[in-house]
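Problem 12. The chain below contains 587 residues. Write out its predicted structure in token notation.
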Amino acid sequence: MFLFTLFKKIKTEIFIISIFITIIFTIFSFPKRTIVADGIGYFDYLISIFYYHDFIRYPHIINEDNKLYDRVSKLENFCYNKYNEKYLVNKYPIGSALLMTPFFLSVYLIFPNNPFHSDIPQIYHITIFISTIFYLLLTLIFFRKLLLTYHLSPLSISLTQLFIVLSTNVTFYASEHASYSHIYSLFAITLFLYLVRMYYLTKQRKYAIFFSATFGLIFIIRNIDILILFFIPFLFDNPKHLKETINHFFKQKFTFFLSAFSFFLIFSILSVSWYFQTGSFFVYSYGNESFNFLKPHFIPMLFSFNRGLFLIHPIYFIAFLSVLYYIIKRNYFHFFSWMIFFIFLTYILSSWHSWTYGASFGQRPFINYIPLFFIPFANLLNDLLKYKKKFAYVFLSCCSIFLFLNIIQTYQYSKYIIDWNFMNKEKYFKIFLKTHKKYRGWFWKMDFSNDTSFKLIKSIEFNEPINIPKSSSKKIDIIINTNNGFKDTTYNYVKVNLNSSYSENNHAKMHFKIVDLNSGVIEFEHTIYFLHFYGYQSRFTDLGFYYFYLHKFVSSNNKKIEINFKTKNLPLQIQNLHLDFIKKATL
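Solution.
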């Protein structure tokens, strides 16, 4: 009976999560690796404590001959930094790992022995995905509770929840990169805002204690997110109510004491974790990474094609414009409290030494602050549905377009069609709405033409043109040994150069294989689409080239290279084919 009642209360959120999971499984396929990059740092707390037992390293120092640093030292400059040149500290806060713990333990209790022989087992990737989905569900539940305090209609709330999940980069960071902290931070911030709002409306002590504890949780998940404290004025109906509530909070000494205690109790979890690693209760764990407040990247962070918030995910811009509705309603307090905080937040976030926040999809730090955008969004949508239905249909049509755009771009990003690091306007429109496999990795094409560490070993040229009708193939075999001019040496790159009649709508491929003639072992093989012979700035009439990286040094003695050209929808003509065998000094 309890479960049935609970289901009725949260059936909308479950439905939205079900739509999300269906899209993930049908369009993107289930993410096989969710614990990646930053997520490894968060997850490492759990395996360090429960499996390797190397979490408590203080008072032992790095140079001591003990096994405590054997494993973590391999992660130095990735998720561990040196502290006082004596210790290694996990640079990521422990909060995300704390929220992952119940899900981690569900697997650990079944497999208590160390399963981490070479890589993280698949069961943990699945577990962390489930963990993230759970906290996303809680986020939607508490966001609905928050919006209900503004007396919004169920329809406007449900639509807002749907757009949060499917129109923003939540889609990616709740699936492919589920181990990142953003969904966990989003949950904590949403819960915090709801509790603060409820304390304002009811003045009940329990809400003060819980919002203080949640504020501590926000800090231990991602320290910088305590900036949400400055968004609190927006939650009040007017400045008078804000002042009255603050005075009431501080006058209730017992409430204030319990609230302060609950905050420091949660904060102490992070502080103690620092002490166990370094012997210090207060640590700046990010090493040389820091803010430069004299050089913010305010405009690029919002409008750049290289992960600009409003360009990559336009739904944020729609939400931003919805704030102007407060001016129309002459609600200047909400307008200015929102705008001041947004400008302040963007200034701080854009001052980080890497304002793009590494290889990220859109501006991922703003995920944590999604309620900031979607409270005004929901208010506007509610009034449009109530009073201006024609405008509501236009509004929802625009949002739906941006929803489908986000689904496509999330697919592009997860399949390496979008450049993770160096996107620009030209690249953006080159692959706009394109999802064909041939575009995967196109922007990752390597060009070592000016690299002086590359040494040419041998070149082989083919003077005769190669004509391949559509839906057919042409195979070329090349024998490599000392009889055809090769010295007994090694190489680790092969550069294939050619001219062709290629056009972008041609789906032709080339399969490249190296076989050892003595053993018959295939030492390397790789298939590429012909598009990859040309850079995104190249003309298809130019000389095309592609570097095959062999991942090891291959001997030039008695090998066979097989090149198989395959056409599909169009014929292909190839001229001036030649291969360069190259040796790079170091792998």
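Discussion. Residues 2-413 form one domain. Students who got a different answer should revisit the alignment rule from Section 12.3.
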